[in-house]
Amino acid sequence: MRREMLLFEEAGPKNTELTLEAARRRAEELDIRHLVVATSTGATMLKALDVCADTEIQIVGVTLLAGYWQVYGAPDAAMVKTARERGALVLTATHTLMGNVEAAIRDKFGGLPPVEIIAHTYYTFCQGMKVAVEVATGAADAGLVPTDREIIAVAGTSSGCDTAIVMQAACSNRFFDTSIREIIAMPR
């Protein structure tokens, strides 16, 4: 099989539209019905809804856990309401790989929890790769995406999105059943 992959010269939100369009195309080619989107305020989720407006693709927006709102900003209530009215499923979830109880242990006592080794391994690709896996895992934990079929997960660096992957998600208690099948887009 041969296929194209988007590689962006620079990471960041300027790649959002191209990433979402590429994710939509690949979802249609593979008959994938779930697109999981990392979203802080809800803006990226609304853009995903626009890009996928005339499709059967279910948008699942995953926001940051409340403990990070003071750093990255809380979800915008109006954007989340609009997204829900347009059919998106919205989840606020603990980060599976960073930001959980192990992070609290690290912050209080030092050391590197084993789960953060996994997170930093994904970071060797890019920040969006780690976040895409996290939001897909959170959505699987909440029962919002299937774990027996492929989905597409979209995330980014700081804001917007610049990374999209085809994957089979797994719940956190079966994390090592996660399978990344394709990289659709990512920064170099």
Q: What string gives the helices and strands in order?
A: EHEHEHHEHHHEEE
Please tell me what the overall shape is: globular
- Describe the sheet with the most strands: 7 strands, mixed
> Rg, please?
15 Å
- Helix content, binned percent: 25-40%
Strand numbers in spatial order across the main sheet? 1-7-6-5-2-3-4
Tally of structural domains? 1
Task: Report a brief summary of the structure.
The chain has helices at 16-30, 43-51, 69-72, 77-85, 101-109, 114-123, 127-141, and strands at residues 6-8, 34-38, 58-63, 89-92, 151-155, 163-168, 179-187.
Note down, in words, how this protein is organized.
The radius of gyration is 15 Å and the shape is globular. Helix 2 runs parallel beside helix 4. A 7-stranded mixed sheet has the order 1-7-6-5-2-3-4, with helices on both faces. Helix content is about 40%, strand content about 20%. The chain has a single domain (about 5-185), classed as Pyruvate kinase, C-terminal domain (Pyruvate Kinase, Chain: A, domain 1, 3-Layer(aba) Sandwich), CATH 3.40.1380.20. It starts with 5 loop residues before the first strand and ends with a strand. It contains 7 helices and 7 strands. With about 190 residues, the protein is α/β, with parallel strands linked by helices.
Topology diagram in text:
Layout: E1 6-8, H1 16-30, E2 34-38, H2 43-51, E3 58-63, H3 69-72, H4 77-85, E4 89-92, H5 101-109, H6 114-123, H7 127-141, E5 151-155, E6 163-168, E7 179-187
Parallel strand pairs: 1-7, 2-3, 2-5, 3-4
Antiparallel strand pairs: 5-6, 6-7
Helix pairs in contact: 1-2, 2-4, 6-7
